[in-house]
Write a structure and sequence with these properties.
Strand content: 25-35%
Number of domains: 2
CATH architecture of the largest domain: 3-Layer(aba) Sandwich
Helix content: 25-40%
Number of strands: 13
Bound molecules: adenosine-5'-diphosphate, magnesium ion
CATH topology of the largest domain: Rossmann fold
Structural class: alpha/beta
Amino acid sequence: MNAITFDRVSKHYGDVLAVNDLSLAVEPGSTVALLGPNGAGKSTSISLLLGLLRPTSGRVSVHGRTPDEVVRDGEMGAMLQQGALIPELSVKELVDLVRRLYPRPLPLDEVLELADLTGLAGRRANKLSGGQAQRVRFALAIAGAPKILLLDEPTAAMDVESRLRFWAGMHDYAAGGRTVLFATHYLEEADAHADRVVVIARGRLAADGTAAEIKAGVGGQTVRFALGGQPSAGLDRLPGVTAVEIADGAVTLHTADPDATLAALYRGTTLDVRHVQLSGADLEAAFLALTRES
Ligand code: ADP
Ligand code: MG
């Protein structure tokens, strides 16, 4: 059974169509990035999953049940974009308070460890930096040991080090076979931390696959090198190559698999390959192309 299913879901806010006919199935145990620019419909999708909003049409289900049922049973945890902490409580008191609301919580020490808060356990919530407060929100989200964890732009306000620690905790949490869905507009985060990337733009599904598949699907990667006066015959038959351009003594190979193309270029040809440049091998180009088209 799917962990998460969106079946032709749309959500209107008055005239605004925030989620537009979205269908999606997420397998249990996977870590999925919901990647899209601001206003794409990421937070709305998460609110629909939590049962905080109802779809205008279509159906959202979690483990085959309604979001309300799953939330009631404490099987879903969430870190939302907003949410104040109780200022007078220490980190430890706050986390313990929340974990006790769940039927089968994680041990307190484990929550603090996963959220990298062990050293801050006695600190009052109103004395935390933005990044530390975000780590407390993460702790509150995992305190009940939810099988499904939803994170809405979790690294906002975190510095580089907090981010690294946060993602390490997320991976440790996910490693127990739990399902994680996180919203982000950072391409690098989707690339680095998800098994699967679901790109949405203007409420619509724009692409769905591994980061590598999405990059390859857009075909934006190129291998360039100086050709000089050497013959270009056969370059179009190298593995991965989808197009060849030659201009000013340089050749540009468009490729779906730059590793294979380069290997074949060195081993399978007698060309003297110099001044090699690789480019477009990032999710950013793919993302821009996808969100522009849709
Ligand atoms: P994201 O999280 O990807 O930035 P949101 O889901 O917050 O996107 O918003 C999707 C669209 O819905 C945007 O156009 C936003 O302005 C609009 N929207 C979000 N919440 C509301 C609301 N409560 N009322 C009206 N429009 C809203
Ligand atoms: Mg949002």
